[in-house]
Design brief:
It is a single chain. This protein is an all-alpha fold. The protein has one domain. 82% of the residues lie in helices and 0% in strands. It is built from 16 helices and no strands. The radius of gyration is 21 Å and the shape is globular.
């Protein structure tokens, strides 16, 4: 199991390094204003993907071991096409209200935003299928392909084709998603069998029943994370959005531990039925994630402001301050990812929705009060308040469902023994 976590962790670390390279090119060459536009486009795509993922998202990890792949493909691909038609009509309608539309989607990036959403929707389907099949290695390779194509194409757009605005970043996203989707598609096709298919209508109903709770949770969670971007666009400059975006990406880089471990956790729990084993694994994953994330945050806190000015440019000197204000929230976010994947992997995603709504109840007053008063500092404080509330709710829900006591979250001798066994098993020959 640690081999999968290590492989996923290495993938995420490489993604983090590539992300830093991308940000260095974007911030140093494009500047904070253009980087803010590119970050806004990425935020728009994140929101639009929520509609697609009702029947083509992370719920596939749960259904892939239980349903025929051909049925899942037919249901999900049809849903993606339907949702994209709705989005095209929505964009067309909003185009008659440019004052509103331009605040949501940067002017001139409407078509590419829709195209990014479409391609990423298909790419994300492939990734979730690989996780559901416990093909974590394949998932990691496809993910690596995406990020390396992305950073390479961005360098080409900037230094070869001379694009010195947000298009360099946005077009590189499209290249990465497209190549990764095509390769993943052919790998996934080889997994199809000739066992017929399940009832399409029944499967769609089951996926929607399971998926709508997850996606409502995702929608609210995305609002919790990204509402600040739109309020910053209204109350601050494009440069401020760029600085906050860079700080968010650097700070959220510590999510590499939570993402790596929770991905393997989700894949594992979706294929387990022993509830005692599920709870014990979740607690162990939680301890490892929080400890590693804490060390990463302490390392970032030790970096001088001059490092961030060198890494990006002098425009981004405030990045460290913003990260420090977000740090408690980032630590709680790492714990929240483990709890979220427990609820989703055991078929009770409604608790993630309730947690997200709890966070939204904190996000709305915090952002609307603090951002006009404090600018990007207010956005960072709001982030911490939100994820403190979410983590507390999820802990109480987890404790009520499992009977786990708070003292069981402390490291024990058995945890160290388990960790050593799993760690050395990485190097053991089969």
């Amino acid at each position: 199991m640690f081999k999968k976590i290590l492989g996923t962790g290495i993938t995420r670390v490489l993604n983090l390094l590539v992300g830093f390279i991308t940000m260095m090119m974007g911030t140093k060459v494009l500047g904070s204003a253009e980087w803010g536009i590119g970050f806004t486009v990425l935020t728009d795509v994140t929101f639009l993907l929520i509609g697609i993922e009702f029947l083509a998202g992370s719920g596939l990890v749960y259904f892939t071991p239980r349903k025929k792949l051909s049925t899942l493909m037919l249901v999900s691909y049809s849903w993606i096409a339907l949702v994209m038609v709705v989005y095209v009509l929505l964009f067309w309608g909003l185009s008659y209200f440019p004052a509103v539309f331009d605040r949501i989607v940067p002017k001139g990036y409407e078509v590419i935003t829709l195209l990014l959403t479409l391609v990423y929707g298909f790419h994300n389907f492939n990734l979730n299928v690989f996780l559901g099949k416990e093909k974590v290695g394949t998932f990691n390779w496809i993910f690596l392909l995406q990020i390396f194509v992305q950073v390479t194409s961005m360098a080409l757009f900037i230094f070869v084709f001379g694009l010195r605005d947000a298009r360099a970043f946005v077009y590189s996203l499209l290249c990465g998603y497209t190549i990764a989707f095509v390769v993943g598609f052919f790998l996934m096709i080889s997994m199809l069998t000739k066992e017929g298919h399940d009832s399409i209508l029944l499967t769609a109903k089951e996926m929607l029943r399971y998926g709508y709770v997850i996606q409502l949770s995702t929608l609210v969670s995305t609002l919790n994370r990204r509402m600040s971007i739109y309020l910053l666009r209204q109350h601050c400059t494009k440069e401020a959005v760029g600085v906050y975006g860079a700080a968010s990406q650097v700070g959220e880089g510590v999510k590499v531990f939570g993402l790596s471990i929770s991905m393997v956790q989700f894949s594992k729990l979706s294929n387990l039925t022993d509830q005692k084993k599920i709870v014990n694994l979740t607690i162990k994953f939680l301890k490892i994630t929080v400890i590693l994330t804490l060390f990463a945050l302490l390392a970032i806190a030790c970096l001088p402001v001059s490092f961030f000015e060198w890494l990006f440019s002098e425009e981004f000197g405030q990045v460290k301050e913003i990260i420090l204000l977000m740090s408690p929230g980032l630590l709680f976010l790492s714990a929240q990812m483990i709890f979220s994947h427990y609820f989703s992997g055991t078929g009770v995603p409604k608790y993630n929705l309730f947690a997200a709504l709890t966070g939204l109840a904190v996000t709305v007053p915090c952002t609307f009060i603090l951002i006009p008063m404090m600018g990007i500092r207010g956005a960072a404080v709001s982030f911490t308040c939100t994820y403190t509330a979410i983590m507390l709710y999820q802990w109480f829900a987890f404790r009520r469902l499992t009977g786990v006591k708070a003292k069981e979250l402390l490291l024990t001798k058995e945890d160290w023994i388990w960790f050593k066994q799993e760690f050395f098993a990485i190097f053991a020959k089969k």
